[in-house]
């Protein structure tokens, strides 16, 4: 009787390290936790790549979306205080509406991000639309961050120009994310940064109208946003893929930057 050689023992390897792994362009970039498959490399891998009810589950880092979830709660409390200060100030009407727009945007950004990243979406269609909304609301938040400065710290004509530029850019960004959600990162990330760099056009006027401390806080926030954007674009660092991956670093830097800009807005409004 012919002796049959025993089959090689299957070993578990990260799916992204498997030679037959290919990223689907339709998979939202936020769902980038490492999945796991079983099977040895080589021809036997074809069988190992067959659907498996356990291995098909995407393993997100445990902290995915947690930073923005906590930030959304904090934004509600801090935002309420900011709006109250704005409405009771000397320029209550203009300051109040500007603060309200900003607070609504920051709560929306952190809230949508937390929902998108924390919820296990069972409907691919719902997940796709949440991804679009998550990416779109960032543009709205950037424009909303400009609003208190344009209304309160810049001369009326200059402020109107700034608002026109940033809200037009935000509308274009939302259209991009809604109509072309699979656009490569080298298209989307620069648009976020370009909208942020609009502040350079009004830096001198901001320095005169808001003061050095406010401008320094804006600059610090801009640096943090840029570092976070770089981490998002290159998917690095990624030290603990199952717990705190590169996307968590991106989220952490966005929160730190938002804190700097919140402080700057508080100084302008109070």
Write a structural description.
InterPro entries: AdipoR/HlyIII-related (IPR004254), Hy-lIII (IPR005744). One of its GO terms (molecular function) is pore-forming activity. Belongs to the UPF0073 (Hly-III) family. The chain is mainly alpha-helical and 270 residues long. It contains 9 helices and 2 strands. The protein has helices spanning 45-48, 66-87, 92-118, 124-152, 156-179, 185-197, 203-210, 212-234, 246-269; strands at 12-14, 36-38. A two-stranded antiparallel ribbon has the order 1-2. Helix 3 (92-118) runs antiparallel to helix 4, helix 4 runs parallel beside helix 9 (246-269) and helix 7 (203-210) crosses helix 8. The protein is globular and about 50 Å long.
Helix-strand layout with pairing:
Layout: E1 12-14, E2 36-38, H1 45-48, H2 66-87, H3 92-118, H4 124-152, H5 156-179, H6 185-197, H7 203-210, H8 212-234, H9 246-269
Antiparallel strand pairs: 1-2
CATH architecture of the largest domain: Up-down Bundle
Q: Give me the number of helical elements.
A: 9
Give me the Rg, rounded.
Answer: 23 Å
The largest sheet is:
2 strands, antiparallel
CATH topology of the largest domain: Rhopdopsin 7-helix transmembrane proteins
Distance between the termini: 90 Å
Strand order of the largest sheet: 1-2
Number of strands: 2
Spans with pLDDT under 50 lasting ≥5 residues?
4-57
Rough shape? Answer: globular
Q: What would you call the quaternary organization? A: single chain
CATH class of the largest domain: Mainly Alpha
Which strand-content bin applies to the residues?
under 5%
Order of helices and strands: EEHHHHHHHHH
């Amino acid at each position: 009787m012919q002796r049959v050689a025993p089959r090689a023992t299957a070993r578990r390897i990260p799916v992204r390290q498997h030679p037959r792994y290919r990223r689907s362009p339709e998979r939202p970039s936020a769902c980038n936790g490492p999945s796991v498959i079983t099977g040895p490399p080589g021809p036997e891998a074809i069988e190992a790549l067959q659907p498996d009810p356990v291995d098909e589950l995407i393993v997100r880092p445990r902290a995915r979306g947690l930073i923005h979830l906590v930030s959304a709660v904090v934004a509600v409390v801090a935002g309420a205080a900011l709006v109250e200060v704005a409405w009771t100030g000397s320029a209550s009407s203009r300051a109040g509406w500007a603060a309200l727009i900003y607070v609504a945007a920051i709560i929306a950004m952190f809230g949508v991000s937390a929902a998108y990243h924390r919820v296990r979406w069972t409907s691919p269609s719902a997940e796709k639309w949440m991804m679009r909304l998550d990416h779109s609301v960032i543009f709205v938040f950037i424009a909303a961050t400009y609003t208190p400065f344009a209304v309160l710290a810049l001369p009326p004509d200059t402020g109107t120009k700034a608002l026109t530029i940033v809200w037009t850019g935000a509308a274009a960004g939302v259209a991009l994310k809604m109509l072309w959600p699979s656009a490569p990162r080298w298209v989307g990330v620069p648009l976020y940064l370009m909208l942020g760099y609009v502040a350079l056009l009004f830096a001198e006027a901001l320095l005169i109208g808001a003061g050095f401390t406010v401008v320094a806080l804006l600059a610090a926030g801009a640096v943090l946003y840029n570092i976070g954007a770089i981490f998002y674009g290159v998917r690095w660092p990624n030290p603990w893929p199952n717990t705190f991956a590169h996307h968590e670093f991106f989220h952490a830097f966005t929160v730190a930057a938002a804190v700097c800009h919140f402080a700057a807005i508080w100084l302008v409004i109070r």
